[in-house]
Amino acid sequence: MSRSSLRGSAITAEIRKAQAAAAAPLPASPKPGANSKAGKTGKAGAPAAAPQGAGEIRIIGGQWKRTRLKVAHRPGLRPTPDRVRETLFNWLGQDLAGWRCLDAFAGTGALGLEAASRGAASVLLVESDAALVAQLQGLQAKLQAGAVRVQRGDGVATLRQAAPASLDLVLIDPPFDGDLFAPALQAAAQAVAAEGFVYLEAPRAWSDEDLAASGLVLHRHLKAGAVHAHLLRRAAAAPPR
Questions:
Q1: 191 and which of 46, 97, 162, 209 could share a cystine (Cβ 3.0–4.6 Å)?
Q2: How far apart are CA 154 and CA 8, in angstroms?
Q3: Is residue 217 a contact partner of residue 235, using CB atoms and an 8 Å limit?
Q4: What DSSP string describes 177-195?
Q5: DSSP 8-class letter at 47
Q6: What is the dihedral sign for C-alpha 106, 146, 73, 56?
Q7: Tell me: the pLDDT tens digits for 88-146?
Q8: In this predicted structure, what is the pLDDT of residue 17?
Q9: Helices (H), the chain
Q10: What is the value of pTM for the model shown?
Q11: Cα(121)–Cα(97) distance, rounded to whole angstroms?
């Protein structure tokens, strides 16, 4: 997720174009028995198109509990599984009233919108993809989520620009095949309040040794399929486990 070089009117024009694309109907689901997984072929031997992205997310708790939100299919889009989100917010507590949150790699917005549903005072959704930004703006409008703000930009840069100790919860779920984990964690450690939390979703477990350079320590960990979910604290604030 590299920082976009678009500025001013160019960004506005691209987002408007993406909004129109995001508003288009989703492709129809394949008929029963049709080949839909990668690697399968049709009768003519041509590879069948693999489904991409999410399709739908569901808010687990809070004021929008059980609300289902349509999201466009996008390559590489990987919303946090329901089970993982439910566990995360059990760890955090169900009431996030007054919390200041930043979802640095928002994607579908599943994590940040869940925080807003549970009463967070402010939730900044940061996303670099113009089509996903347009989609997030649509979801924010549909939910009438006044505490939610959508921003197109670079998640790591946004964290670096945040005032020190200004956030209660930082959500980090970057592309699994990228190298954004370490810089995002280092930036988050500076932006999060002393008693705040950093959530990390990754394809492998991060130990305290892995986290040492960022100044964070492991507070909770869950493995669900290929996903490792970590709740982190600043080293000085972490209670004994």
A1: 162
A2: 16
A3: yes
A4: TSS-HHHHHHHHHHHEEEE
A5: B
A6: positive
A7: 999 999 899 999 999 999 999 999 999 999 999 999 999 999 999 999 999 999 999 99
A8: 54
A9: 8-23, 82-92, 110-117, 130-143, 155-161, 181-191, 208-211
A10: 0.77
A11: 6
